[in-house]
Design brief:
Helices cover 76% and strands 0% of the residues. By secondary structure, it is mostly helical.
């Protein structure tokens, strides 16, 4: 029994050792290619990074560690924001739904939330609204409630009051309170205040003082 447990404990160590050896060999090949001047330095480095990310992703999945999988996804791009589907979504282009869904599932909710939050931080609210709405409306993406509240916060910054009030009138008051509380608990005081002000304005304009 003890021998079996010891063998199981050694498996992760052996896996890490094998991975390290393989990555070292690939890095040595890259150094040799750069030293000999065979091929473009940028191309060789890019290929190494992609191989590294692919191998890392496989090992993370094998050990049930998916938290950093978005880094592997980024490793396959030429740049963080260069993906053609992503660019189309940011520009609110009409893209094939299958292509959009494939991209969203490849990116995953963690990376997509990071993208939307970065766009909001950079005051690119139109692009943040477009991307968050697409994520919210996705049929296969998880964690869509978070994208909905980010989308509504973006609307508060980009829409005229009449248009904003019309869209907010379709939202349940209890859902609005939950979103405001979520933003507040996440420490996003500005977004919570923005959304709270918008819904309070809606209540006042509609003469509705009751929130079921």
């Amino acid at each position: 029994m003890a021998d079996e447990e010891a063998e199981q404990d050694s498996c992760p160590v052996d896996s890490i050792r094998e991975t390290t050896v393989e990555l070292r060999k690939r890095l040595e090949d890259l150094q040799a290619a750069l030293r000999d001047g065979t091929g473009s330095a940028v191309q060789s480095s890019s290929e190494y990074c992609q191989q590294f990310c692919t191998l890392a992703q496989e090992k993370l999945k094998e050990n049930g560690l998916l938290q950093l999988s978005f880094l592997c996804t980024l490793g396959h791009y030429d740049g963080v924001w260069t993906n053609e589907v992503l660019q189309g979504l940011l520009l609110n282009q009409n893209l094939p739904s299958e292509q959009v869904e494939e991209f969203l599932l490849q990116e995953g909710p963690v990376l997509l939330q990071m993208r939307v939050k970065q766009l909001m931080k950079d005051k690119q609210m139109d692009k943040a609204a477009s991307l968050s709405k697409t994520c919210w409306k996705s049929s296969g993406l998880q964690g869509k409630d978070a994208f909905k509240q980010m989308y509504l916060v973006c609307l508060c910054a980009t829409s005229e009051q009449d248009e904003l009030m019309e869209k907010l009138s379709k939202e349940d008051c209890r859902d609005a309170l939950e979103m405001i509380c979520n933003l507040d608990s996440d420490g996003d005081d500005q977004a919570a205040f923005t959304l709270c002000s918008a819904f309070l304005t809606r209540q006042i304009l509609h003469g509705d003082t009751y929130c079921a």
